[in-house]
Amino acid sequence: MTTGHPLDDAPLSAFHKRLALYASGGPFLDGYVLSIIGVALVQISPAFNMSTAQEGLVGASALIGIFLGAFVGGWLTDKFGRQVLFTIDLALIIACSIAQFFVGDVLWLVVLRLLIGMAVGADYPIATSLLAEFSPRKWRGPLLGAFVAMWFVGAVAAYIVGEILVHFDGGWRWMLASPAVPAILIVLARLGTPESPRWLLKKGRVEEANAVLVKVFGPGASVEDLPEEVSENLRIGALIRGGYGKRMVFITIFWTCSIVPLFAVYAFGPKILGALGLTGALANYGSAFITLMFLVGCIVGLVLVNRMGRRTLIIHSFAWAGLALLLLGLFPNASAWIVLALFAGYAVTIGGTQILQWIYPNELFPTEIRGSAVGLASSLSRIGAAVGTYLVPVSLAHLGTGATMIVGAVVTFIGAGVSIMWAPETRGMTLGESCAVNNTPASAVKRAA
Fold first, then answer.
1. Would you say the pTM of this structure is higher than 0.70?
2. Major facilitator superfamily (MFS) profile domain location, by residue (predicted)?
C-alpha cells in the first residue's frame, strides 16, 4: 500500500472505534424498530381487529418513513454538516417511541411509526458520511459494513425483548415504547463528536478543518494530508447525470433487491415461520436464531470484503442467497429443521450484499454529494421494501408460503444479474480515487494486494 496519504493510511485509533460504535446506533435502532413490530403485531392485530392490509400498512409504515427521511437527511447533512444533525434526529425517535405507548387506533400507530422511520432514515446518510470521511481506507469497508451488522444486533435484541413482553397483557405497548431507551443512550454517547474535516474543507472553513484534524490525529495534522478529491463544486443534480447517474441506478437496484426479501421476512418473521411449521415461542426464538445468522453473515462479509473485493463478494452473496430462498419455495413442506437451516443459509449468504449497502454509496460519490447520494439510494430502495412488506401478508394468504419465497428468490437473482453487469471494484482506493468516475479498478486491486 502507498504511504502518500498520512491520514487515509493512518492506523485504526480509539477515536475511529468510538465513532464507528456511536454512528452505528442508527442501524441498531432501525433493526430494533422494524423487528419489534413483528412480535408486537401478535397482540396488536386482535386488539385492534386489524385486517391483513392494515397489518401490512403498520409493518411498512416505518419503511415509508425511511424513504421520506433518508433523502432529506442526506441533503441536510451535505448542506449544514454532519455533526450538527448527528444527535438531533434521534430526539424524534425518542419522542415518537414513547408516544406509541399511548396509541389508541391503527391510524395513529401508522403515523408514529412513519415519523420514527423518517428519523431513522435521516440518520443513515448523516452517520455513514461522517464515518467514511474520518476512516482510513484500509478500514473504511469493514467500519461501514459493520453498520448493517448492528442492524441485526438490534433485531436480535428486539426479538428477545418481544418474546419476554408478549406474555404480558398489553405487552405490545412496552415493546413499541422500548426503542426510546437505547436512543437516549446513543444521543448521550454522540455528544461532542467533531465535524467532518473533509466537509469543512469543501465549505472553505480551512481553519476549523485543521483544528478538527489536530484534535483527532494530533499536532502536525492538517488539510494538506487529506487525499485529493473531485475539485469541481458538484450539486445534487449530479446524482442523476453522467457517470454518477449510472452509479445511482446500480446502487438503488442492488440495494432494493437486497432488502426487499429481508425486510419482508423481518416484519413478518414469526408468521412466516409459523406457516412453515414453527409456531408459538419456537417461531420467535427461530426468528432470533435467523437474525443471529444474519449477523454471522455480516461478520463473514466484513472479513471477506477486503480479501475478495467488493465486486466478487456482492455477486456471490446474491447468487447463494437466492438459491436458499428458491429451495424454501420449492420445498415449503420440509421438516421444521430443514426450513430453519435454509433460512439460516439465506441469512448467512446475503450478508455480503448487506454490508455493501453502506460501503458502495459512500465510496462512489464525492464529499459535496455523498450524504445526498446515500440518502437518495436509501430512500429509493425503501420504495420496493415498503411495497414488499405491505404485500407479504397478502401473498401469504393468497399465494402461499412457497410462492412467496420463490418471489423473494427471483428478486435476489435480479440483484445478482445487475451486480454482474455494473458492480465496480473500489478495494484499496482512497475516497478521492473511488469517487472519481474514471477510477481504475485494476490499480486499486494491485495496491490492496
1. yes
2. 19-427
Residue 208 resides in a domain: no
Residue 325, CB-side half-sphere exposure with 13 Å CA sphere: 28
pLDDT at position 250, please? 93
For 331, what's the count of Cα atoms within 13 Å in the CB-facing half-sphere? 13
CB 310, CB 429: distance < 8 Å: no
Rounded CA separation 248/158 (Å):
32
CATH number at residue 110: 1.20.1250.20
**Structure confidence at residue 266 as a pLDDT band (50, 70, 90):** low
Sequence-ordered alpha helix ranges (H) in 81-170:
88-100, 106-134, 137-165
pLDDT at 86 over 60: yes
**H runs (alpha helix) in 277-369:** 281-304, 310-330, 336-349, 351-363
Is the pLDDT assigned to residue 443 strictly greater than 60?
Answer: no
Q: Do the domain assignments include residue 419? A: yes
Mean pLDDT of the chain, nearest integer: 82
Q: Is 6 domain-assigned?
A: no
C-alpha–C-alpha distance, residues 408 and 350, integer Å? 12
Range of the domain at 336: 14-193+228-448
Contacts of 126 (CB under 8 A, 6+ apart): 26, 73, 74, 76, 77, 82, 85, 86, 89, 371
For residue 359, being part of any structural domain is answered with: yes
Categorize the per-residue pLDDT at 415 as very low, low, confident or very high, splitting at 50, 70 and 90: very high
Return the closest-CA partner of residue 390 out of 254, 252, 259, 267.
Answer: 267
Q: Look up residue 449 and give its three cell numbers.
A: 494486494
